Amino acid sequence: MDGLHSTIKLNNGIEMPRLGLGVWKTNNRDSRDSVIAAIKHGYRAIDTARQYGNERGTGAGIREGLQQAGLKRDDLFVTTKLYNGEQGDYDKVSKVLDNQLSDLGLDYVDLYLIHWPVDATYIESYHALERLYKEGKVRAIGVSNFDNDRMSKLLEESEVIPAINQMEFNPSQQEKDILTFDESHGIQLEAWSPLGGGKSLSNPVINELAKKYGRSAAQIILRWEWQRDIITVVKSTHEKRIVENSDIFDFKISDEDIQRINELDENSRGLWYDDFKWHNPNGQYGNSIDQWDDTNEQL
């Protein structure tokens, strides 16, 4: 099935929608409005994180969106993430998740990810996620931004294979080695920054194909990722663009043109661990909210 309700079966058997709305760098009010619009227009996956500082707004959007669309909680697939300074043992992570569920107004999340592999804590944190998974507080667990070395170590020391590795993935940053490794272990790649932070939208090849197929550059990229079987979360705060981003199901990119986009990969190092103090086990963990301060907004 091609459409917003199309899913991919994860390695634990649950179905995850293939295209969803992300709310990175969105304040509580805008995340609420974006989520409402997305649900109204057929999206069934919502992706947020503690780092984004908008779980309250996302939760409000989920409640209002479901009510307006006449849907139930289990019609929606919700992802959130455990951030750096909140990683640790089961007791710590369990309390963190309880707080996140409270902010979201949910009894469970469908997917819970370790946001970044803090070297001193990610194994212990993943063991906590495994226990939360077995307790039914989360339907699936996974990671984000894990390179092959860290993923290999995680697989050696864990029981539950991550269902997802959420990575930057777009025409210029395709993480081929990570994609191949994850696929070989039954781990589904999920794309964040699928449009390359806007960079890919100005690529001459993308724009040539947009003209050829009578589509926007964003639609060409999202359709390419769809045909590559990459789960994708795309962010917009504009209802018109939220709709446009999902209008990719009535055309198909030829195999030849898919290959042309594949060849846009710059083979650059997509992960930048060395830029972060938390990469050093003795350094400080980054745990700032990656947006502007709107914690006093009334929702």
TrEMBL record:
Gene Ontology molecular function terms on file: oxidoreductase activity, acting on the CH-OH group of donors, NAD or NADP as acceptor
Pfam families listed in its UniProt record: Aldo_ket_red
UniProt enzyme class: oxidoreductase
Signal sequence range: none
Residue span, NADP-dependent oxidoreductase domain: 19-266
Coiled-coil annotated residue ranges, if any: none
Residues where substrate binds: 115
UniProt KW keywords: NADP, Oxidoreductase
Active-site residues, record numbering mapped to chain: 52
PROSITE patterns: ALDOKETO_REDUCTASE_2 (PS00062), ALDOKETO_REDUCTASE_3 (PS00063)
EC number: 1.-.-.-
Keyword Ion transport among UniProt keywords: no
Lowers pKa of active site Tyr, annotated site positions: 81
PANTHER family according to UniProt: 2,5-DIKETO-D-GLUCONIC ACID REDUCTASE, NADP-DEPENDENT OXIDOREDUCTASE DOMAIN-CONTAINING PROTEIN
Protein family membership: Belongs to the aldo/keto reductase family.
UniProt-recorded name of the protein: Putative oxidoreductase YtbE
Species of origin: Lentilactobacillus sunkii
